[in-house]
Structures are given as C-alpha cells and as structure tokens.
Amino acid sequence: MKDGDSMVQAAGIQLWFGLAGGSFLASCTLGLGTALSWFDTAGFRWLHHALFVLTCVLAAVGAGSLLWSASPAGWFLLPAALPLAALPALGSSSLIRHAAIAVTATPFFLISVLVASR
Fold first, then answer.
1. Of 113, 12, 1, 114, nearest to 70 (Cα)?
2. Tell me, what DSSP letter sits at residue 44?
3. How distant, in Å, are the alpha carbons of 22, 36, 91, 114 from that of 41?
C-alpha cells in the first residue's frame, strides 16, 4: 500500500508544480504579448493580475509541499518568492524593470517543474 501512496503523492507533486509553472508561463506570455502590442488587454487588464495571484498561490502550494512531501522540488521553487514579492512592491511604471524582475523567477519555476517530474 505504501508504494501506491507514494505514487499518488508523486502525481500530486507533479500536478501542483505543473500548474504553478503553467500559470507563471501564462502570466509572462500575457504580459509580454501586451507589452509588445500583440494583443490589447485594455478591456480585461485584471486578467494579468489574476494570473499573477494564481501563480503566487500555486507557487506557495508548491513550496509548501516541503511540509507534506519528500520531494525536494519545493526547495528549488522557494527562491522565486523574492521576485514574486518584489513585483507588486516595485510596481510596473518601468516596463523593463518589471520584465527583468519577472524573468528572474523563471529558472526557479523551470527547475522545480523538472525536479517534480522525476
């Protein structure tokens, strides 16, 4: 029964980290597409903010997996909390600064997804 439990737990880890990485990717894609005028989000600017909040919540669940899982993936995602926390504090008045801060979280999401999928 323990093997079945560990398989379910591994699938849960993969799911949470996959959702966090996907949400981060969607938020970055929407932000980049809007900045480059690939599409207009004037009527639904809240969507980028909603994706950011969702990303933060899912990242917190992923990092929190350190409390209920043996997977080390949470350790790799934990440093992403710094740029995620800095984004609202520093605002988006400078598009380049906003993008640069957001991009610094990318390796942490990528590595944590890869570690969780092992």
1. 12
2. G
3. 20, 12, 18, 32
Place of tokens 């380049």: 96
SS3 77: helix
84-113 burial, b at 16+ Cβ within 10 Å, e below that, comes to: beebeeeeeeeeeebeebbeebeebbebbb
Of 65, 67, 60, residue with least CA distance to 116: 65
Q: Residue 2 class from Cβ within 10 Å (0-12 exposed, 13-18 middle, 19+ buried)? A: exposed
From first to last of its 118 residues, the chain has per-residue pLDDT tens of 455 556 556 678 899 999 999 999 999 999 999 889 898 888 888 899 999 999 999 999 999 999 988 899 999 999 999 999 999 998 778 888 999 999 999 999 999 999 999 8
Type of residue numbered 47: L
